[in-house]
Design a protein that fits this description.
single chain, 146 residues, mainly alpha, two-stranded antiparallel sheet, 3% strand
């Protein structure tokens, strides 16, 4: 799927609108992540994915053929630059929120796995000096090793 623009000016207008819309989606998702409510992102994730793919494809097209934006006025260039800069700021904040959520999630999973492993470790009365038998990391799947 690509933008259907009749002129470079039309393409710039559509790209600005796409950039703004995608940036607004990221602001909403960032707010959900910062509020520790990632489940609220689920219902709009498909729209964000579609907008992201369209944005990525358009940037690749423009990078491979810069003439798609030839002939823009100074005001159009400025508007496109400002929309892109704002989007980059929003994207950076979104990246920080996603990284934080990922770190927390990985920490929770690691803590649960360690606790599960500790509970499954058995005392062996017949081992050398009654040492605990450490079985290593455990999966959550029926006590199988990871």
């Amino acid at each position: 799927m690509a933008l259907s623009a009749a002129s470079p000016s039309d393409r710039a207008t559509q790209l600005i609108a796409l950039t703004i819309r995608l940036g607004e989606r990221l602001v909403g998702e960032t707010a959900c992540l910062e509020a520790h409510r990632p489940q609220d992102i689920y219902e709009g994730i498909e729209e964000t994915r579609n907008l992201s793919n369209l944005y990525r494809h358009e940037l690749m097209r423009i990078k491979s053929d810069p003439s798609l934006l030839n002939g823009l006025t100074a005001n159009e260039k400025k508007a496109l630059r400002e929309a892109t800069e704002l989007f980059q700021e929003r994207l950076h904040r979104y990246e920080l929120a996603v990284t934080a959520a990922k770190t927390v999630t990985e920490g929770i999973i690691s803590a649960v796995a360690e606790d599960l492993s500790a509970r499954r470790t058995q005392n062996s009365p017949y081992g050398a000096r009654g040492r605990r038998v450490v079985t290593g990391p455990q999966s959550f799947n029926f006590g199988k090793n990871a």
